[in-house]
Each structure stands twice: as structure tokens, then as C-alpha cells.
Design brief:
By secondary structure, the protein is mostly beta strands. The chain is built from 1 helix and 8 strands; from the N terminus they run αββββββββ. Strand 4 and strand 5 form a beta hairpin. The longest helix is centred in the N-terminal third of the chain and has 22 residues.
């Protein structure tokens, strides 16, 4: 009888320990994003790359390297169209993105153009909601002749 009681106590102890371990398993925080290529854009997007920037309140320098293209399997986003993504951006943090476009059949990453500069750190922010609508407008700059961002937005929730 004493051996059965000890075995039962050992089993009960392992059960409690295992359930505590299971509860402490953290899932990665994600953000559901509707990424819109504005109807005012002049180019179709073929590539979107992300780079983590850390806390929305204090981080000003990148905290990770640029990702690979998140538009998989040859997908593109034409002007006025959108795609949905689930991104690993923790709550209260943000990432910036950069894009590549199709120009007369050529794939061009905006940042690789000679002389390219941008006034934008295009954000995707996980703040205020676990869903986000991000929109970008891409046009030829009339002064430089380069393809550039002419606007962006980043709003909590999924907008129509």
C-alpha cells in the first residue's frame, strides 16, 4: 500500500510540473496586416521586405536584418489591390518595410536605384490592435526621375 501511495504522489507531482511547463510556453505575438498598394500608385509591387525596429516608444535603430520577400509564389500587388499577411511583430513594437516594383517588365528594388533617398521609414506598427491596414503609394518622382514612395499610412484595424 505504501508503494502505491508513493507512486501516486510521484505521478501527481510530475503531472503538476508538466502542466505548469505547458502553461509557460509562449506563443509568438502576431499582427494580421492588410497591405494595400494605393490606387494612386503607378507601379505593381513584386517584393516587400521587413526589418524589425523594436519598441514603438523608443527604438530608432533597426533591431534585425531585412527579411526575404514576404510576397510568396510570385504574387504581386497591383495599384488598388491588397494582400493579407500574418506577421511576427510583437505588441508595442514596429517594423519598417521596403518594396520592389515592376517597371516596364523590370524588377526594381526602390532602395537599389542610384541616387535613391526617401523621407519615409514606412512603418507597420503593432499598437492599438492585433490587426493593421498599411497602404503605400509609389510614383515616379518628377524632380529626380526615380521611383519613390509618395505616401503611406498605417492604421489600427482592417480598413475597407
Amino acid at each position: 500500500m505504501k508503494n502505491k501511495l508513493i507512486a501516486l504522489l510521484v505521478l501527481l507531482t510530475f503531472s503538476v510540473f508538466w502542466s505548469c511547463e505547458k502553461e509557460n510556453t509562449e506563443e509568438k505575438e502576431t499582427l494580421y496586416v492588410k497591405f494595400v498598394n494605393s490606387s494612386g500608385s503607378e507601379y505593381t509591387i513584386y517584393s516587400i521586405q521587413l526589418r524589425a525596429r523594436g519598441s514603438v516608444t523608443s527604438q530608432q535603430t533597426p533591431t534585425a536584418a531585412w527579411s526575404a520577400n514576404i510576397l510568396l509564389n510570385g504574387k504581386t500587388i497591383a495599384p488598388g489591390a491588397h494582400e493579407f499577411f500574418t506577421l511576427e511583430i510583437p505588441n508595442m513594437e514596429w517594423s519598417e518595410y521596403r518594396v520592389g516594383v515592376i517597371d516596364n517588365g523590370n524588377n526594381i528594388m526602390l532602395h537599389e536605384q542610384v541616387g535613391f533617398t526617401s523621407n519615409y521609414e514606412c512603418p507597420i506598427t503593432h499598437w492599438g490592435s492585433d490587426e493593421r491596414t498599411v497602404e503605400v503609394t509609389i510614383e515616379e518622382d518628377i524632380f529626380t526621375g526615380l521611383i519613390n514612395y509618395s505616401g503611406y499610412s498605417d492604421f489600427a484595424g482592417i480598413q475597407n
